[in-house]
């Protein structure tokens, strides 16, 4: 809405404004920036999740459970069942890691369903009340539509994959498999010949995992956010006085409604996919080839 | 779009959340769930046991009833037998008693008859004496003729 006041025809400006993070430059260069909005909303969602989960877990009784406990137990049992089916190594971290991924990613994705202009508008209003220029009041509220979040999570998962691999197989076997799998050979000559392809393939495989994991989630959420922005652009800068506002407004409502409904599916699915793929990678790391 | 320092913070924050969930949340909720599962399993097995016990008790009760019935039947049988025996014995006793009474009565009758005969004999003797007195028309010393009369009496 901040850009709406700037008048019509500023579609590009509006979109760019919406896609700009609230950043804090901690040093020189592009890397030395911190996206404050991403951090803030991650903190909020993490707190919501922890408060719900840890509080319910602390008060959990073996007797008749309350409704909230029931709901959380359903998720817990679902994740626990998945882990028991798929993961045969030993690690106490897998199930808590997966439920955290699922719940946290879902909650962060869920922020995408809030009206696209609501929080940025509140932020800009607060900004202008404080006497600053609202044009610089940037705010992006969906942490998973920020590559930093998804890549950060994917890298943590990547490190945990290596940790679980070493823990389950031992250091020697773990690094040995870099050279002897996936291509196996009989005899010393064959084994030596396959060292290079094996190593290359393994390195590519390992590097591709966090990239695909993070880009899949980021791409989905970023695209979803962008479509919400584009739907919002339909009535950008128009007034109730002009006729075209009315059919466009109705079209905007229908489009927004449809995309929101569809997006509920996407945010759940993406959270689930992130969780399941992490589980699959961890299981593969724990099993010998 | 280019990753920046946020990446590191987000990665660490995510790991911190995972650790906290692992330490503070997960064990409690899993423990509660497993506790409840055990409780339910225990309850079910106890219900099963109770059902079995009930069936056992039913069988035992039926057994007892059957036994009691059989016992009652034998008691009634025995009672019948005893009654028959008692009746038989009573009949025998009655027959014996009747025979005895009959014998007593017969003896009595015999004695009476004997007595009557004796009496008759005595009377006949005196009649004979009186007759003889009349016939002889003389005084007969009863004492002198006593032996003769006694002989007469025994002869009659």
What radius of gyration of chain B results from the CA coordinates? 61 Å
The residue fraction in helices of chain B comes out at: over 70%
Helix-strand topology string of chain A: HEEHHHHHHHHH
Question: Structural class, from secondary structure content of chain B?
Answer: mainly alpha
Give structural notes.
The complex is a heterodimer of chains A (289) and B (156). Chain A contains ten helices and two strands. By secondary structure, chain A is mainly α. Chain A has one domain. In chain A, strands 1-2 form a two-stranded antiparallel ribbon. In chain A, strand 1 (23-25) and strand 2 (33-35) form a beta hairpin. In chain A, helix 1 crosses helix 9 and helix 6 packs parallel to helix 10 (245-286). Chain A starts with 10 loop residues before the first helix and ends with a helix. The relative contact order of chain A is 0.14. Mean pLDDT of chain A is 86; it is low at 1-8. With 156 residues, chain B is mostly helical. Chain B has one domain (26-155). Helices cover 90% and strands 0% of the residues of chain B. In chain B, helix 1 (6-136) packs across helix 2 (146-155). The model of chain B has no long low-confidence stretch (mean pLDDT 89). Chains A and B meet through strand 2, helix 2, helix 3, helix 4 and helix 6 of A and helix 1 of B.
Chart the SSEs and their pairings:
The complex is a heterodimer of chains A (289) and B (156).
Chain A: H1 11-18, E1 23-25, E2 33-35, H2 36-59, H3 67-86, H4 94-110, H5 118-129, H6 147-169, H7 171-180, H8 188-193, H9 195-233, H10 245-286
Antiparallel strand pairs in A: 1-2
Helix pairs in contact in A: 1-9, 2-4, 3-4, 4-10, 6-7, 6-9, 6-10, 9-10
Chain B: H1 6-136, H2 146-155
Helix pairs in contact in B: 1-2
